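Hi U.,

Before I forget, here's the chain from the pilot set. I'm dumping it here mostly so it's searchable later in email.
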Amino acid sequence: MCPFIYYGIHDETVDYQEIPWRNGRFDPTALSHKLATLGRARHALHHWRDKAQDRTLAFCVSTAHADFMAERFRKEGVRAEAVYAGSSLDRGAALEALGRGDLQVLFSVDLFNEGVDLPAIDTVMMLRPTESKILFMQQLGRGLRLYPGKGHLVVLDFIGNHKGFLNKPQALFDCGSRYQDLAAFGRQVRDGQLKLPPGCFANYDLAIIDFLTRLSGKGLETDYQALKESAGRRPTLTEVYRARTDLKDFRRMGGHWWALVRDQGDLEPAEADCLERHAGFFREVQTTAMTKSFKAILLESLLELDGFRTPPRVAVLADRAVHVFRRRRSFIGDIREDLRNLDRNDPAKWLAYWSANPIKAWTGGNRKAEARPWFEVRDGRFTPTFAVADHEHALFQAMVQELVDYRLAAYEPRLDLSPEGEVPVEPDEV
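Structure:
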C-alpha cells in the first residue's frame, strides 16, 4: 500500500449535536439536510483545492447529498459528477472518466466501499460520518493501492463535534475505545508524538485535538459510554474487559455487570424483570472464584444443552464439556495430563474426573454447609436449585452466556502463565 497524508478537518459549518442520534447513528434524513448546504460545500471545496491531488473519490451520505456536492463543485469550475445506484452516470463509466482525468472528483454513495479497482485514485474525501470502523477502513482503502507516479494518498476527513466520530481515530490509529485512550491520542497528536509508518503523516485541526483531549473521564461507567458511542450499541462485558477497563469498580457496585447495564438504561423491560429475579445467580457467575476454567466450561456446556429448561444427565453434561474443549482448545491445558487426549479418554474416567471437579463445585461440595448451592444432582441430572420461567429462558440464557464469555476471556491470559501439568485446585476454585 502507498503511504498517506491524513487531514482531520474540523467540520465547522455543521453542529452535529443538533442532529437526532438514534440507535447508534444519526437520523439519515436530518443528516443529509445538514450536510447539503452552501456553507459546507464551500468549506469542502476550500480544503479540496488546498490539499487534494488529481483524482478524488468522495463519500456522501445520500443521493441528494452527492448530487448537491457535484453541482456545487461544477459551478466552481471543477469537473465533478455524482454516481450511485440509479444515477444517470454508470459506475464503470464514472471510474473510467476519473482514471483518464476527464473527472477530477467523483461523489459517490455506497457504491465504492469495497471492490473498486482504480489504483489511480490519489485523494479520498470523507464527507459523511461512518458508524462502522470497517466501513471507514473500506472507504480509506479505495485509495491505498500503489500506482505509477502516485507518491501518496491524501485523505480529507471532515470530523464534527460529536462522539459519533470517535471511531475514526480508533479505526485508523488503533488508539483504544476508552475516553482516556482517545484523550491520550489527542495529546500525542498535539505534541507531535504520534507514531506512523514511514512516509505517512497525520494533521488534525486544533478544534478536533481540543475535543479529543477533553475526553479525559475515568471510571467504569465512562468507559461503558465511550464503547457504546463507538460501537453504536450496548457493549458486552467482554468488550469492556478487552478495552482494558478497570473492572475493580464492580466491587463498589456489588460485583454486578447487569446492574450497570440497567443503570445505564440499556435493559429492555423483560431483561430488567429477568435481572430482578436472578440477580444473585448472575453475580455468582461473574464473581465465582476460578483457579481453572472448569466452572465456566460447565456452564457453557449446560447452555448448549438447554439445561436450564431440561436438566441433562450428568454423563451427557460431561460429554458436552468434551465438545466445548474441542472448540475452545486453548483451555485443554487445564485438564489433568492423562485426560488431555479427548478422543481416547475412557468415558467413565472422564465422568469421574468431571464429577469431582466443576460438578462438585457447583453443587456445593466445596462450600460451607450453610451456603446454598446453585445446582444439585437430582435423579442423576444436573439440576438448578432455582426456577427459570418458560417465558424468560431465552433472555436468561443469553445473559448467562455473556457472563460466561467474559469469564473465559478474562481467564485465558492465565493459560500462558500456568506451569505444565496439573494446577492445584483450591476449594470452590474450579
